[in-house]
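Check out one such.
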Amino acid sequence: MLKIELKDLEIFYWVAQLGSFRGAAERLHTTQPAISQRIANLEHTLGVKVIERGARTSTLTPRGRMLLEYAERILRLSTEMVQSVADHKTLSGVVRLGVAETIVHTWLSRLIEQVHARYPNIALDISVDVSINLRNALVAGQIDLAFLLGPVSEPSMVNLDLCRYPLAFIAGQAIDLGPEPVTLERLTSKPVITYPKTTRPYMALRQMLTRSDMANPRMYPNSSLSTIIKMTLEGIGVSVIPPAVIARELARGELRILATELTLPDLVFTATMGTTPSLSLAEPVARMAQEIVAMYNEP
C-alpha cells in the first residue's frame, strides 16, 4: 500500500498554488532543495510526474491537476479533524501577525493574554504598520494574519468582520475654535493631524476638507498614532482619530471631542488571512480576536 506523507501533499499544494518552488519555500519557511526533495519523494511514491519544473515557474502535469483536487480535500479534512478533536494545547507554532496601530491602542493586549491562555504553544510575532503595508505583506506571504482596514479584495484572501470605530475631531484644552458645532472654516484654521497619506482615512478627510472657495487645509499626516495623540495634547492642531484610542485622555479632560458640521466615515477593520485548506494557526487567532472584540464592546 502506498504511504503518502501529509506534509508532502501540503508542499505540493503550495507549489501548485504559487507556481514555483521558491514561492513554496518562502511560504513554508524552508529551502528550495527541501521542497524539491519532498516533491521528488511524492512523485517516486506515486510513480508519476506531477510537476513540470521550469526555469522560474512550475506547472502541473495532467496527473498533477488530478492530485491537486485530492490534496485539497485531504488537507481540508485533516484541518477539520484537528480543530474538532485535538486539545488546544497541542497546537504549536508561530503566527506572524500584522496589526494596525488603532488595534494596539484598544484591545490587542487582551488578545495576547487570551491566546497565551488558550494556546500556550502558539507564539505571536507581531508587527505594527499602516493597513496598506499590512495588505502588501499579506499578499506577499510575509505575514500570516492582519488586523487592518479592510476588506482586502484578493481571491487568495479571507476577510472576517472584526470591528469598526467612529472617527472624530479631537482637540486639546489649548485649542479654541469658538462655539460648537464648529464650522469647516474654523476647523481648517488649525492644522489637522491624522493618518498617513496612503491611508483611506487621510484621503477621505482630505477630500472632505478641500473646497474651491477656501484655502487648502494644512494637514499633518503621521504614521504613529501615539505621536498624533501627543501632538494633539500639545495643541499643535486638531486631530482626526477614533475616540476609542484616547479613553483615558478624554476621561481626564485633557482632550475633548469637537462637535462639527461634518460626518466622518467609520474605520472598518477585518481579520484577513490567506486561504489554505491545510491547518492554519492564523484562523484560531482570528476567531479569538472576534471573541475579544465582542467582549470589549459589551456595555
